[in-house]
Design goal:
Blueprint: H1 18-22, E1 26-29, E2 36-39, H2 72-85, E3 89-91, E4 130-137, E5 155-165, H3 174-188, E6 196-205, E7 208-217, E8 220-233, E9 236-250, H4 251-259, H5 264-269, H6 271-279, H7 286-293, H8 307-318, H9 322-350, H10 359-377, H11 384-397, H12 401-405, H13 407-441, H14 449-459, H15 463-472, H16 483-490, H17 500-513, E10 520-521, E11 531-540, E12 544-547, E13 549-550, E14 564-568, E15 571-581, E16 584-590, E17 600-605, H18 607-631, E18 637-641, E19 647-652, H19 659-674, E20 679-685, H20 686-693, E21 707-713, E22 717-720, E23 735-744, E24 747-754, H21 756-775, H22 783-812, H23 818-821, E25 824-827, E26 830-836, H24 843-856, E27 860-867, E28 872-878, H25 880-884, H26 889-896, E29 902-906, E30 910-915, H27 921-937
Parallel strand pairs: 3-4, 10-13, 26-27
Antiparallel strand pairs: 1-2, 2-6, 4-5, 5-9, 6-7, 7-8, 8-9, 11-12, 11-17, 12-16, 14-15, 14-17, 15-16, 18-19, 19-24, 20-21, 21-22, 23-24, 25-26, 27-28, 28-30, 29-30
């Protein structure tokens, strides 16, 4: 529970419902957790919830209070049917990737589907009241998934019945909400009424808040009934005009409750869990599992309690040694986590998340790497991952068919992610060894938590792998039990900081236009109008012109603003930029003077620019659709920037594009151009658009507002888009792919040109080929063979060069050679070798020679340097023994780099620097030698 400005609970009257009084419930204060609750049992002494507070233990295990047993699909259908019979419309579940939201990546509750547009009255709900069974993902619970036996899951189904109460229309509120719940659990499921407890709480989430009651049966919280009536603004609760019934029924927990099995995982996965146990070679003692499960509510892994501390309480209650119990339970809990995480991964990847190091892709990668580590801890071959995911696809594909459709893409993404992780581990273990050596050289015996987090965030190394590698080198690593939760929390939100200057500029313009009426965007009425008349409403700072209507398109959605001129009287002012501030469109002009308020202006667009941008924007929809058809349904737009000369589109994809794929995308997009498909734009109510076209609408990201503008390009593509478009695709003429690049992990950039600029791109490529043909004295037909031959010869020459450098370095590294001996000096048991490479600033040669020397003698420090007419270079390397005696190469280089007019640095074992003052090199070398002497004498 989140407390805002000291608020821990609402006044008692918020919870004093007629239902409680009529049914004989009494309000009590739990002496253990300090919360109020309602019960029909006069003798009940605590709230009855099994949590780390220790108020109760589970009583439903082997003794389910329900009339029948339900698996997850059965309890889902029972829940949905019950509320359908009570006047609620059944709504299809939303995706687990919350693409309609700009603030979060994943759907973690059913109310997320309706925030903020419905809950704040911006848009109507799809039905009122409604009922939904929503798959949800909460990676903040990742550390507790397993140890709490299923009380925490990373993926679960939330049953929600929602009612939206308007000032002039109330559907139902608190009392009826509780009545529905009680009827569902008692009349339908058969739970005795006196076994149901309602616990008071405060709910805060998604920017909203309200009082809630948590429903406890047999020690297990099975539902939360929230009465959302506030918006949270800077920590204050502000009343909303719409009061929302926001309920969350834990359908997975209800299945667990009805079956009375040892864990929620048994209830959800059944035979699939047994197969994972078998794959891991686990023989599960069910009697022990039941005894532990009874008290598993006490367990909660967080930053203040490690696993053994949490386990110790349970061990005492079941009369077991904590270490022996931990040894038995750890692999079982890891298997629990494997089935949960693989289901979660299957759902995430099936909706187009590509594992990467950014955004939602980061969260998928985090989950994959944790599963990989769990399999390793269970001594399972990583190939088993594909078997388990395949079973998950079969298991859940019956209820969620899109998962089966995406099976092949899911498997391919997992394979590529496995290969990437294997490469990371190979590189990473060496990195950890070097870090451990540097720490030990500085007398540090424990790896800082900041370094552990950085190794995961920046290099993808799981803490368990770091611990293995570092402790093998004698450096202690303590991994927080909630490490993955901390990491997930850090990456759940999408909010990005805005520069302070931008905030000030925006705020000043917002203030200036706040009382103006909305500008009429005539470019939506007819995007082909080139000239128009309008009235000036306001002139801001002598350059920002607000009109009553305009055909100038403001910058947005990756489309640059229109340009042109405003004419008034005898003045012609250039329109250099157009932007939308709130509801008002401002035209920034450049000219001798500005119009006056009330003047009529005549606007003329730069039509060539506008028309080319219209082509580029429509073409972007075609390229996006083509990429999805060629590469797969995982392709989503990650960003776009339209331009006159060229346009770029960033898409999610798990590997580099091949030449064949690029050509297929280009061909398909041009076929769509030649098909001359009609482009239809229409404003539609948000709910209606989502119902008709699904959430592919949000290719370009979340779109605000009650109504959204839908752009439908034949049967090729449909998106929510605010840009200007052509009437038909044939107007594009021609589209040419001009480049692709990997801009970041999991994101490919496609560059292309349209119309006459596409022809120009083709001509430039032809000219380049002709020049190459002339330079290489080869015909166009033989150009590829000639290039291949040259590349092969160059590789052979470079290979020979590297071989010669290595041989030379080996010879030069011998301490007893005349040249080397002349520059070697013994200092307190350490050999300092100085070497002037003169004008040969060959860093590769320097490094190879230093490596060879230190390989022969770890009590060596090399000080290598060289200079030409413009630059100077210094390289320092120290062996393990030299570092133990105090040498720190990084400190040496940092000390002398400014002397040669540059910078540098590195680690205790290796550092280099350079600068633009070669004449100062000898002074720097003297200082370096003095610094090394001081380090050895400390």
């Amino acid at each position: 529970m989140e407390c805002l400005k000291g608020l821990k609970r609402f006044p008692a009257e918020e919870y004093e419902l007629p239902f409680f009084k009529q049914q004989g419930f009494v309000r009590k204060l739990c002496p253990t957790c300090g919360d109020y609750y309602w019960t029909q049992k006069a003798e009940q002494e605590t709230c009855g919830e099994s949590t780390s507070d220790g108020c109760a233990c589970y009583t439903f295990l082997k003794n389910p209070p329900t009339r029948s047993c339900y698996d997850l699909p059965e309890i889902r259908e029972a829940f949905l049917s019950f509320f359908e019979k009570h006047g609620h419309k059944r709504i299809k579940p939303y995706p687990v990737v919350a693409r309609w939201r700009s603030d979060i990546y994943l759907t973690h509750a059913s109310i997320i589907d309706f925030q903020p547009y419905v809950t704040e009255g911006i848009a109507p709900p799809p039905a009122n009241p409604l009922v939904i069974a929503q798959p949800c993902i909460r990676l903040v619970d990742i550390s507790n998934t397993g140890p709490t036996f299923g009380r925490h899951l990373t993926i679960f189904e939330m049953g929600g019945h929602h009612a939206f109460n308007y000032p002039d229309h109330e559907v139902y509120w608190k009392d009826q909400t509780v009545r529905y719940h009680h009827e569902f659990v008692t009349d339908l499921l058969g739970v005795p009424s006196e076994d149901v407890t309602y616990k008071e709480d405060v709910w805060v989430g998604g920017g909203n808040a309200g009082p809630d009651v948590e429903c406890i049966i047999g020690g297990l919280e099975v539902a939360t009934l929230v009465f959302m009536q506030y918006k949270v603004v800077n920590g204050d609760f502000v009343k909303l005009p719409i009061r929302t019934v926001d309920t969350g029924y834990g359908l997975d927990r209800f299945a667990w409750l009805s079956q009375g099995v040892p864990s929620c995982f048994h209830a959800i996965y059944g035979s699939l869990l047994d197969k994972v146990f078998s794959m891991a070679g686990l023989k599960v003692d069910n009697a022990l599992l039941y005894s532990v499960a009874k008290h598993s509510g006490l367990v909660s892994v967080d930053k203040t309690a490690n696993r053994l501390d949490a386990r110790r309480k349970v061990a005492e209650l079941v009369g077991a040694n904590v270490n022996e119990l931990d040894k038995v339970l750890m692999p079982i809990e890891n298997a629990f986590a494997v089935v949960d995480h693989t289901k979660c991964l299957s759902f995430m990847l099936s909706e187009g998340i590509v594992p990467s190091n950014i955004h939602e892709g980061y969260l998928a990668r985090l989950l994959f790497r944790r599963v990989y580590r769990l399999l390793r801890s269970l001594n399972m071959d990583v190939e088993r991952l594909y078997d388990i995911v395949d079973m998950q696809v079969d298991y859940w594909g019956k209820d969620y068919p899109h998962i089966k459709t995406m099976r092949d893409e899911i498997m391919e993404m997992l394979k590529i992610e496995e290969d990437k992780f294997e490469d990371t581990l190979k590189r990473g273990e060496g990195m950890v060894v070097r870090i451990a050596a540097d720490l030990k050289a500085n007398g540090v015996k424990r790896l800082p938590i900041e370094t552990l987090s950085e190794l995961y965030d920046s290099h993808g190394l799981p803490p368990e792998i770091v611990k293995e590698a570092a402790e093998a080198e004698g450096v202690i690593v303590e991994v927080p039990e909630d490490f993955y939760t901390l990491i997930a929390n850090r990456h759940m939100q999408t909010d990005k900081p805005v520069e302070e200057e931008e905030i000030k500029a925006e705020a000043s313009l917002e203030s200036a236009v706040e009382k103006l009426p909305a500008t009429e965007p005539m470019y939506y009425v007819d995007a082909y109008v080139r000239e128009f008349d309008a009235r000036v409403l306001k002139v801001i700072e002598g350059k920002h012109i607000a009109l009553d209507r305009t055909y100038f398109y403001p910058e947005g959605g990756g489309q640059p603003s229109d340009q042109g001129v405003l004419m008034f009287g005898d003045i012609k002012a250039e329109v250099v930029h157009v932007q939308k501030v709130g509801r008002v469109i401002l035209h920034e002009i450049k000219g001798p003077s500005a119009p006056k308020e009330g003047d009529t202006i005549h606007g003329v667009l730069d039509w060539d620019k506008r028309y080319t941008l219209m082509k580029a924007h429509t073409a972007t929809h075609l390229v996006n659709g083509a990429a999805r058809r060629v590469l797969g349904e995982h392709v989503w737009q990650h960003g776009t920037q339209k331009g006159v000369e060229s346009t770029r589109l960033d898409i999610s994809h798990y590997r580099r594009l091949t030449a064949d794929e690029i050509h297929k995308i280009e061909t398909l997009a041009n076929k769509a151009v030649l098909a001359d498909m009609r482009v239809i734009t229409a404003w539609m109510p948000r709910g209606e658009a989502e119902s008709l076209y699904g959430f592919r609408l949000y290719q370009g990201g979340a779109v605000p507002g009650k109504d959204i503008r839908v752009v439908k390009t034949g049967d090729w593509d449909v998106e929510a888009c605010a840009g200007t478009h052509l009437k038909s695709t044939g107007e594009i003429g021609f589209l040419k792919m001009i480049y692709t690049e990997r801009i970041q992990d999991g994101v490919e950039r496609l560059g292309y040109a349209v119309g006459i600029h596409a022809l120009k791109a083709v001509q430039e490529e032809e000219l380049l080929l002709w020049k190459l043909s002339e330079t290489l004295s080869a015909s166009l037909e033989k150009l590829d063979k000639t290039a291949e031959k040259l590349v092969k010869e160059l590789k052979e020459a470079n290979s020979e060069k590297r071989k010669l450098i290595k041989e030379l370095a080996a010879k030069e590294s011998l301490i007893d050679t005349a040249e080397t001996a002349a520059v070697a000096e013994e200092i307190d048991g350490v050999t300092l070798v100085k070497r002037d490479f003169l004008e040969e600033i060959d860093v590769n040669r320097m490094v190879q020679t230093a490596n060879e020397m230190i390989k022969h003698n770890q009590a060596t420090v090399t000080l290598f340097y060289g200079a030409d007419r413009k630059n100077a270079r210094v390289l320092v390397m120290a062996g393990q023994i030299a570092m133990k005696k105090g040498v720190n190469a990084g400190d040496v280089v940092r000390e002398i780099a400014p002397i040669i007019g540059g910078g540098g640095g590195g680690k205790p074992s290796f550092a280099q620097g350079g600068g633009t003052k070669p004449k100062k090199l000898q002074d720097a070398v003297k200082i370096a030698e003095e610094t090394i002497r001081k380090q050895l004498k400390l």
